[in-house]
Amino acid sequence: MSNSVLELNEVSISLDGKQLLEIDCRVGPGEIVTIMGPSGSGKSSLLAYIAGFLPKVFSSSGVVLVDGNDISSLAAERRRIGLLFQDPLLFPHLSVAGNLRFALTGKNLNKDQAIQQGLEEIGLAGFKDRDPGTLSGGQASRVALLRLLLSEPNAVLLDEPFSKLDTALREEVREIVFGKLRAAGLPTLLVTHDQADADSAGGTVHSLS
Amino acid sequence: MLRWASYSLILLLAAPILLGTFIASLPAFGYFPPLGSTEFSLDPWRDLFEVPGLTRSVLISLISGVLTPLIALTLVFLYLASATGSKLDLWIRRLVSPLLAFPHAAAAFGLAFLIAPSGLLSRILSPGLTGWERPPDLLIVNDTWGFSLLFGLIVKEVPFLLLMSLSALPQLKPRQRVEVARTLGYRPTIAWLKVIAPSLYPLVRLPVIAVIVFASATVDVALILGPTLPPTLSVRILTWFNDPDLNLRFLAAAGALLQLGTSMLAIAIWLALEKLCAALWRFWLATGNRDSGERLAFTVGRSAMPIVLMVVAGSLLALLTNAFAGPWRFPSALPSAWTIQHWLNSMQDLSTPLFNTLVISVLATLLALLLVIATLESERQSGNQKSTAMWLLYLPLLVPQLVFLFGIIVMTEFVGWQANLSLVIFGHLLFVLPYVFLSLSEAYRQLDPRWSQVASTLGASQLRTFWRIRIPLLLAPCLTAVAIGMAISISLFLPTQLLGAGRVTTITSEAIALTSGASRNLISVWAIVQLSLPMLGFMAALFIPKFVWHNRSGMFETR
Q: Which of A45, A93, A135 to mutate to probe the B interface, most B CBs <10 Å?
């Protein structure tokens, strides 16, 4: 159970001298804050900035704090920020268990047990040795979520993670993702242009223009 | 940390070539301390211009340098204009890579054994069609003006230029453009030539120039198919260079500079032809002509590739028959008996060159792969744009091999190094590098960046991401690059011959050494060994990923 807080202090991102966005917000433990905006409003750049992948052509100012510590200058892999993309992006050359094992940190002593238990919790017991290419969209999303949780992040970013799912599946996956992140007490920043996502998240909504 | 990679890659390619070319020119002006000559003079040039038949040698090099790309490119463009999207096209596209892997020397031998007066073709046609009861007294192979040389070069360069064109084409969106032109009333072949060809040419210009340089300065193909009295300039330089009389080194150096000039002149002629063609095209476009010439262009284009393929297939057949032929009287189409004796006879001699070939090609290719991946990885991690210096990668293809290799040898002689295996591997590396880079760079740059990003958010370091994610995902393109690199190395003759001072033997250098004197049967055995090595490499590159990822369906989707 994490009890971290994610804060964006006067974050501003610009490209070629033109400001794309400016945001200031605080996400508490287990809280899901939604950022809404049309495409081209810089939503993805914001996530890339927080995660540590913003291309050099962009310039940025402000700080990202996790539990009061500035992480803005850390390398992406040291920030402990989990990220779910539009696609599950399960590594195609690894089995389901291989994908999960990749995320486990060294201090985790019994990796097989952690994988087994995690798969049971998302209703995919027995999927350990499966080829990720053979999973359904919903199953792949759940494995991606589990992989993120096993990496023990301090905060989570969601980049329109439900937009590519069928309407029927979307509700189900949304519920399990939000449920797990809340249960883990993770501060979560959701980027979307779907009002239903924002409603379901139930937290503060920031609109970009 | 990886920044050194791209610099060392460029330095490694550019320094030996530029320096080599410069140093090769010192003995040409009489300066060569290792032979005790420390004063500049014009004697080597005086000697060179007194060599009988020099003008013709230069002329033949010039002719093959200009005509090879001209005819090959015309055929490729007419083919693309007439066949794009057809069933024939699907077949040809699949065959073009293996065709490219056919080593120059093996292809030249095959062609020689196909078209020689006593070759396979003449045997099939005789006596029925020709009435020949014995091989006619015709100089077909090694003809005085180098027509068979030209023919061999064209057959070899057509697949190369086709592959280059095919990889450049998609960015031009050829289908839409041709369709627009067709709605304006242009016939399809004419439409392609008018709206695609002018934009495609600039994209394949550099490979075309590489073809000019290769065709005007080739040694191995010219040794097999080229004229003998007198031979091409390049062959004569090699002869002088290998002469036991070391004073001929000065002559060879002057000849190497003349070779450089000849290749440059061929390029200059080509550039003038470019201007002429551009003017003709502008005029032709302005006429608004929509259909005249369609039939001719279509017929030539459609038949060009099948003819090239048939020639290659015929060459392969000629090699296979000769390699297993027992007694074979002239007009019979096939030997009267088959034997594996030629193979048994060659076994012993094959082992050392085979071992050398594998050691050289594996080491040169792995070194090249290491440098190329380091360069591409540093480009990715630093987020830099493609470096403009990357055109230097083409340098080994744009300067005649003979010239800078000669310079490298002169350099090693200045410093007093002995020719050895590592020098040969270094020489091969120069030629393998550009091809490995060209083959891997697109796949590497186009790999979805999100794979590495996901790995980072999961806490994996750059190093772990590289080994556990990027390399496995890029396994197939890496293996293809290795297969191409090894194929290039296996087919190289001059770097082995010159840098190894004849003491390092490979399958290719030995096969070419057999040209003078050995039987067709024996040569065929060596040529078949030579061409099977790259084929095996390409097959491995194709099947290893299928085997490793047989249970990973996601690895075969288009990413």
A: A93
- Bridging pattern class, strands A6-15 and A18-27: antiparallel
Mutate one of A91, A101, A111, A135 to test the B interface: name it (highest B CB count within 10 A).
A91
Third-level CATH fold of B57-339: MetI-like fold (1.10.3720)
Are both B1-26+341-559 and B57-339 of the same fold?
yes
Report how far apart, in Å, the C-alpha atoms of B379 and of each of B14, B75, B373, B524 are.
Answer: 19, 38, 10, 45
**Tell me, what's the ipTM?**
0.93
C-alpha distances in Å from residue B205, one per residue of B73, B195, B271, B437:
10, 17, 10, 18
Question: Closest Cα to residue B47, out of B304, B341, B253, B285?
Answer: B253
Is there a contact between A53 and B516 (Cβ–Cβ < 8 Å)? Answer: no
pLDDT per residue as tens digits for the range A84-116 = 998 999 999 999 999 999 998 776 678 888 899
Contact A40, A209 (CB under 8 A): no
Of A78, A133, A147, the CB nearest to B554: A133
Q: A6: which 2 tokens?
A: 């994610």
Question: What is residue B558's predicted lDDT score, i.e. its pLDDT?
Answer: 45
Residue B559 has pLDDT above 50, yes or no: no
* Closest chain B CA to residue A84: B454
A6-89+137-207: CATH number = 3.40.50.300
Sign, CA torsion B422/B441/B71/B63: negative
Give the strands of the sheet with A32-36, arranged side by side: A81-84, A155-159, A188-192, A32-36, A205-207
CA dihedral (B380, B386, B388, B391) positive or negative: positive
Mean predicted lDDT score pLDDT of chain A: 89
Do B459 and A151 lie within an 8 Å CB cutoff? yes
A158 - beta bridge partners?
A84, A190
CA angle, residues B335, B338, B342, in degrees to nearest 5: 105
Going across the sheet that includes A69-70, the strands are A18-27, A6-15, A58-66, A69-70
Q: Chain B interface residues facing chain A, Cβ-Cβ under 8 Å?
A: 383, 449-451, 453-462, 465, 468-469, 472-473, 475, 549, 551-555, 557
Termini Cα distance of chain B: 29
B453 contacts A51? CB cut-off 8 A? yes
> What are the residue ranges of helices labelled H in B218-290?
220-225, 233-242, 248-287
Residues 6+ apart with CB under 8 A from B31: B37, B38, B39, B40
What ranges do the domains of chain B cover? 1-26+341-559, 57-339
Q: Which residue from A23, A21, A51 is spatially nearest to A38, judged by alpha carbons?
A: A21
User: What is the CATH number that goes with domain B1-26+341-559?
Assistant: 1.10.3720.10
CA A124 – CA A126 distance, rounded (Å): 6
Residue at token pair 């996530």: A47
